[in-house]
Model the fold of this input.
Amino acid sequence: MTPPPPAEELHERDAMICRACGNEERASEGYPCADCGTFICIMCSIRGVIRCRSCQEKSAGGETNR
Done:
């Protein structure tokens, strides 16, 4: 009896780039940006980051123009 052929290896990736720090982290371990919904990693969330880099820049720019 011959052995069955090896099963194909899955190459799925559960990773996303954090839009605040740029690190690649597991997608299931993060939160959305408070403004636009892009991925923020868990480490940034623990540090208190709630907005991605571009939304933070927009927010900071909007506050100085008032």
